[in-house]
Amino acid sequence: xAKETLDKKAALSQARKAATARASQQPKKAxxxxxxxxxxxxxxxxxxxxxxxxxxRPILPxxxxxxxxxxxxxxxxxxxxxxxxELAKSDSGIAKQVSGLLEMGKSISDLNQIEPAxxxxxxxxxGEYKLLLSTGERRFWSLALTAADNHRGEPQLEVQxxxxxxxxxxxxxxxxxxxxPLSAIGKARAIAGLVxxxxxxxxxxxxxxxxxxxxxxDYYRSALDMETLxxxxxxxxxxxxxxxxxxxxxxxxxVYHLNLLKLPEDLLHMADxxxxxxxxxxxxxxxxxxxxxxxxxxxxxxxxxxxEIKRLGKSPVKKKAKSDSPATxxxxxxxxFWKISREISTAxxxxxxxxxxxxxxxxxxxxxxxxxxxKLAQKLRLxxx
Length: 385
Hints:
Elements: H1 2-20, E1 28-29, E2 41-45, E3 49-50, H2 66-71, H3 77-88, H4 92-111, E4 117-125, E5 128-135, H5 137-149, E6 156-161, H6 169-179, H7 184-199, H8 216-221, H9 226-230, H10 239-247, H11 251-259, H12 265-273, H13 278-284, H14 292-302, H15 306-313, H16 326-341, H17 347-358, H18 363-384
Parallel strand pairs: 1-2, 3-5, 4-6
Antiparallel strand pairs: 2-6, 4-5
């Protein structure tokens, strides 16, 4: 496995070197004859690009069925981008994501695309070729949103052509990490994808190439149920080591990330949009499920840390109300008097206390008060002994 990983990294390094030579190349328009050549840079219209919905970094939100409709072919890039911009007006998490993508789109327009995306040509129908994107989905949507926001025509994405067999999850992970580190949710999807890839022989309902493929949410979440997948609750021998080599993670942290997939789909995307850390999300998941959505939104908007989430979850325990009996009230007030009386240092001050106490009381009430205080003094002396 170590050799295989090195081979992948070496291939990736060569691909990146080829990409840097782009400065001396003029982007070439895609032609049917050249669609199978690898390594060159091609400008591809967005409508000719097919996105991989099982990418470790989910981009399209699930809100408003945006993600479902696009991957079901019910909406093209332009309609999706327009709806996305509308959603951003009422959702702060989506607004933050869209703002970052628009900034990237402007940068690409102003400075030209520095790093090309990667993809391989596939034949969707006899004589009809489309480019399956391996990496660069953020750049795809940044151009789409920028075009929709500025009411421009269809943009083109610069893509370095690779062979179809070169597209792999391991390559996507490495290239994604080099461009922009995966979020905690992205890492969770990546780990789950590598687990499923390692198992290989998956049930028909998880067949990504079937006419009715699983949603990416159902696909990745299935990695949590090993017993259904392989008939055992334990991972195959050596699997953690292999995946850890690709992810650069210890087993404990990979398990922590996998557990994030227990979040509902809409909350996974919300957490990803806010780029919340695994530690924050793990702390949130210790709270009652009814509080997850509100706390994820709060953590995203206010940038709360894991310790702050922990403190947030500690609701104050209400003390049992004590019965306010006359004895309890009297003791409370006498304690207050005793604390103040420590500031009384002279006989004159004590005379003033007696005068103030007796003011407005009849003689018998004054004597009853003095008697009560004398009895109390006796009881206190007994307790002191």
